[in-house]
Every structure is written in structure tokens, then in C-alpha cells.
Write a structure and sequence with these properties.
Layout (H helix, E strand, L loop, with lengths): L2 H22 L5 H27 L1 H25 L1
Length: about 80
């Protein structure tokens, strides 16, 4: 199986599992479910776009690496703001 297909399979399975967990667990209020749904949908769409761009051509691989680097920096900054 190609690496690209494995990434897409991972996204599909984990997205379904995450949404089922949100809706069926009963631990979360309606507001938390909606915000979780929006967050995970955006995160998975971004992941699929990055995988698509990475395998599209060589120059796009650099864009993906820079995009991931920017996401990493944002995550670190938000982590330190949150604590």
C-alpha cells in the first residue's frame, strides 16, 4: 500500500473514531461537542491538504515543511500562554 493511501486511511478511521467518541461518550456538553467537532474537522482537513501537497510535487514539500514548522511554533506559543 502506498504511503499516501495509508495517510488517508489513517485520517478516515481516526476522524470517524473521534466523532463517535464525542457523540456517544456522554461525557461532554453540547457546546463542547460542537467546538470539538469544528476543531477536529479543521485539523483533519488541514492534515489532508498537507498530505496532498506533500505528494503533489517537490517544491510543495517545502511549503508543507514550512507550514508544519509554523504550526509547531504556534502550538508552543499557545502552550506557554495557556499555562
Amino acid at each position: 500500500m502506498e504511503v499516501k493511501k495509508i495517510h488517508y486511511l489513517f485520517v478516515g478511521i481516526s476522524y470517524i473514531y473521534t466523532l463517535l467518541h464525542l457523540f456517544l461518550s456522554g461525557k461532554y456538553e453540547q457546546e463542547d461537542i460542537v467546538s470539538g467537532f469544528v476543531f477536529f474537522t479543521c485539523a483533519y482537513i488541514l492534515y489532508v491538504v498537507f498530505v496532498y501537497l506533500y505528494f503533489k510535487s517537490e517544491p510543495l514539500k517545502k511549503i508543507v515543511v514550512w507550514g508544519l514548522f509554523i504550526l509547531f511554533i504556534c502550538s508552543v506559543v499557545l502552550f506557554f500562554i495557556a499555562i
